[in-house]
Amino acid sequence: MHRTVSMLALALASSLSLAQSHDRHPAAPGSAAPPWTGQALIVAAAGNRGDRTTAPYRPVGLNASEIHVFGPRGGEQAFPVEAGVARLRSPAPESGNYHWLSARAETPAHVAIASTIWYASNPGPAPVDLLRRIKNELEIVPDPLPREHASYRESEKWRFIVRYEGRPLAGQIVRMETERGTRTAFTTDTEGIATVLFPRDFPPDTEGDGHARAKAGFVLSTERQEAGRHFVTSFNHTYAPDSERGRSLGWGAVFGLAGMLGALPLLRRRPAKESSC
Amino acid sequence: MLKTLIPTLSRLRFAIQLAMLFVTVYGSVLVGTYMAGKISNALPALSCAYDQMNGGYCVLIPTQHILHHRIGEAMVRAQQLTLSMILPLLMSFLAFFAFFFVLGKAFCGWVCPLGTLQEVVGRIGRRFGIGLRRLTSADLLAAHRVRPVKWLLLLGLVFLLPLLTGLGVTPHALGNPYCDICPSRVATTLLTGNTDQLALRVGDGWSFALGAAADFLIGFMIVGGLAIRQPFCRICPLLAFNALFQRLSPLRLVKTAHANCGQCRICSDACPMDIEEISQQAGRKAYTEDCTLCGRCAEYCPQDGTIRLKWGPLALFSSRRAYYKDKVRSELPDGSVKPLRFMQRDEAADAR
After folding, report:
1. A212, A270, A277 member nearest B264 (Cβ)
2. A122 lies within 8 A of chain B by CB
3. Nearest to A215 by CA among A246, A239, A242
4. Among residues A142, B88, B183, B338, which is most buried (max CB within 10 A)?
5. Tell me: the pLDDT tens digits for B255-267?
6. Which residues of A touch B201 (CB under 8 A)?
7. Residue bearing the bigger pLDDT, B196 or B225
8. pLDDT tens readout for residues A180-219
9. Interface test with chain B among A3, A6, A8, by most B beta carbons within 10 Å
10. pLDDT < 70 positions in chain A
11. In B47-67, which positions are buried (b, 16+ CB within 10 angstroms) versus exposed (e)?
């Protein structure tokens, strides 16, 4: 599941382009959905370079008035969406890397929930408690999350748990849509786990690693009718090309062998002397 | 039973090295993804973050990263270097040196996975009778001539280039230069069956060149390690990083002068870093920046109490003639092992 990493990836979700509104929810200004999905998303907003204490995120395809931040140490805080953007901070007690972001819009008959993860690039606790915690009624929860310097990558399989009120849901259909155009679906097993295969849908010449590494958005969504209400929940983030793209194992082997050849003169036999005292 | 399994300090150290190699390379398999992170965050360095099966922390990573992304970015915008910029860098150093205070340079000699791999390669070389080459003036070249290299790597690749990249002076591909040439990145990921880090990034000249350097180093290390002990350790910037505060750690090797010192030189022969000063000097001067606290000099010193491995006032191990005699029966100071000979139990008793 885990593959090669890029060290400089800060794992902030990439900015996703604007577009249409969600078909079932009136869109607020600045909450237009990107063209590749009709599902609700939370995406990083541009314009925050230099300020690492706040993270601008915006809900898209969802008429949410605030984004809830669930901190790595149990804190929770809601930040208002102003002019389409919420400027998020780590809720007290601060310090830590993994932050769960959640936005919702609801009517008496319908609840739409969008979720994502924000990596704040600070050392802190593992996200076990954060992921275990119930944040909304219907949830898609990564199990596990990619670590800070890792990322979801094409051709990899990752597990996601679908829960309702904390209970795993077996046989639940999880739909996947990617920015590169893939549409697919997975079904949860008896433990509520959907094993999601990330599609290999980047163009052939895409850079797989390094600073110019491409990223694309994906969203997983599922829905459920419960207690007379229709719940739709989504989890979105980004995935990257296979890190083998743009790399040559042959050249690597050539230089490895060159190093071996360079060391060969050291192996000329010399009798080892036994020390004595 | 314990004495039979771990009869010597070397055996204890090797057992710890193998256990730590497992933790630092395959840790998440045993204890889970996040817990492995917690464990290796508790180690000072070189649990390589490129390997996703371990915990993934190395002090050299945040050092390059912060210099590249935070300080450089802040300076280039002519903003003040506020606490929010400096603090992460200081915290990385403080965390490193807090653990370093407990472990001292023993990280290098007892925990570092790359050090363990080099030691295993060296053992293979000794086992197959490949003659040992030394970094001494009588053989390849004096060890002290190589010592500046690790400082240059630390200053150039860990501090300077990431900062210059953050300032926009050097290309973006040079933001992480030490990791790009670090053979541990290649070695530990290869151990998990991942060839991505061995493969070179084509299309970007700098990335290709740095990756080629790493692959050359790992190739050189694998073959050269058969003849030279710990070849990469001698230029490892982490050893330099450790050396910055080695005098502050309570874990240290202590040598007192003895009339025979400078004559038998067995301690220097036993030293995997070829530190000649151990046999020639006493006190602090005996242990240079290259010492990895492996303790072999103490094991092979035939004089009672001349070399001690101490943690503060506590002597963890002292050199003893009886221990030395027992030790050289199976392994010579340079690491050469005596041929295995199978004996009857009563014959073995007579031999003792």
Report:
1. A277
2. yes
3. A239
4. B183
5. 998 888 888 889 9
6. 209-210, 246-247
7. B225
8. 999 999 999 999 999 999 999 998 877 666 555 688 999 9
9. A8
10. 1-34, 47-53, 94, 123, 149, 207-213, 269-277
11. bbbbbbbbbbbbbbbbbbbbb
Tell me, what's the ipTM?
A: 0.76
pLDDT tens digits, B128-138: 888 888 888 88
B312 to chain A, closest Cα gap in Å: 30
- Closest residue of B to A7, CA-based? B50
pLDDT (0 to 100) of residue B76: 57
Binding-face residues of A in 210-249 toward B, CB within 8 A: 210-212, 243-244, 246-249
Residues of chain A found within 8 Å of residue B130, distances taken between Cβ atoms: 267, 269
Residue A126 to residue B41, Cβ atoms within 8 A: no
Note the pTM of the prediction, 2 decimals.
0.70
Residues of A with Cβ-Cβ distance to B95 under 8 angstroms: 123
Phi, psi dihedral angles at B345 (to 5 degrees): -60, -45
Inform me whether the C-beta atom of residue A265 falls under 8 Å from chain B C-beta atoms.
Answer: no
Tens of pLDDT along B208-218? 999 999 999 99
Residue B316, pLDDT > 70, answer yes
Supply angle C-alpha B253, B257, B262, rounded to 5: 100
B176 touches chain A (CB under 8 A): yes
Q: Across A219-228, A266-275, B66-75, B335-344, which has the greatest mean pLDDT? A: A219-228
- The confidence score (pLDDT) of residue A89 equals 87
Closest residue on chain B to A5 (Cα):
B50
What's the confidence (pLDDT) of residue A29? 36
Of A260, A274, A275, the CB nearest to B223: A260
3-class SS letters over chain A = CCCCCCCCCCCCCCCCCCCCCCCCCCCCCCCCCCCCCCCCEEEECCCCCCCCCCEEEEEECCCCCEEEEECCCCCEEEEECECCEEEECCCCCCCCCEEEEEEEEECCCEEEEEEEEEECCCCCCCCHHHHHCCCCCEEEEECCCCCCCCCEECCCEEEEEEEECCEECCCCEEEEEECCCCEEEEECCCCCEEEEECCCCCCCCCCCCCCCCCCEEEEEEEEEEECCEEEEEEEEEEEECCCCCCEEHHHHHHHHHHHHHHHHHHHCCCCCCCCCC
